[in-house]
Amino acid sequence: MILDLLLLFLLGLSFGSFVNAWVWRLKTGRSISTGRSMCPSCKHQLAWYDNIPVISFVFLQAKCRYCKKPISWQYPLVELATTLLFVGIYLHFSPISIQTWTVLALWCLASVFLVAAFVYDYKWMLLPDRFMLPVIAIGIVLVTMSGVQNGWQSVVPQLIAATVFTSIYLAMWFFSGGRFLGDGDIRLALAMGLLLAVPQLLVAVFVAYVVGAGVGVYLVAQKGRKRTDQLAFGPFLIIGLYFGLFWGEQIAHWYLRYF
Ligand SMILES: [Zn+2]
Questions:
Q1: How far apart (Å, rounded) are the C-alpha atoms in residues 240 and 238?
Q2: Angle CA(27)–CA(33)–CA(39) in degrees, nearest 5?
Q3: pLDDT confidence of 34, banded at 50, 70, 90?
């Protein structure tokens, strides 16, 4: 068990490192398969020992070995978040859904594509199709598998919820002229509708808006950001999606019992 966890931890770290590299290469137009990693400031090629997840960051004291420019906290944070998600999915889901493919799908979904989409949207206010389309595809596969296993009637409420939820986002996008949310958020809404059953979806939306409002109020109070400055909403929806995925059912049950 300890050995399993250690192995998962190391795998998670390398997935995190991959996500960082992928996001940066998508932004700069470099291919993920060619060339070695380089420092974004001085473009010096990084040796393998400059590129060990988290450890290099700590060892180099958050500065590039060659140009001494600070290395962004994004790198270790993304590596740690990916690792937590990677190990968390295994511990949370493997006892319930014994099918290996579900765990594999959730790994790709939650600890690669959604983390990459989160980082990209947070930094550049865009949810690239490169990340969102695989998320939607995984959602469709999971719904289809569920339909095949449990009968197609069982997925009808899911499909209705996904359609309604996506339509709400489509309408908000249309009537705001794309000012309040981008078209990437519509794809994210579709993915959430496909991935979460109705109670989980409601929990996800609730968490997204509460966290979003909290951060918004905090930023305005700090005066670091004017009220008019835009803040991407995708990352909050993704945080909500994680809550829905991991604890949506428990939170919904708890809510129904007490209110
Ligand atoms: Zn450098």
A1: 5
A2: 55
A3: low
pLDDT above 60 (res 90): yes
What is the distance between the alpha carbons of residues 206 and 212, in angstroms, rounded to a whole number? Answer: 10
How many angstroms is it from 16 CA to the middle of ligand 1? 21
Alpha helices, H only, 39-182:
55-59, 74-93, 100-108, 114-124, 129-150, 156-175
Instruction: For Cα atoms 48, 52, 57, give the angle at the middle one, nearest 5 degrees.
Output: 120
Ligand 1 centre distance from Cα of residue 63 (Å): 8
| Ligand 1 center from residue 37 Cα (angstroms) | 11
Distance separating alpha carbons of residues 56 and 49, to the nearest angstrom = 7
Q: Model's pTM, two decimal places?
A: 0.91
Q: Is pLDDT at 99 greater than 90 in this prediction?
A: no
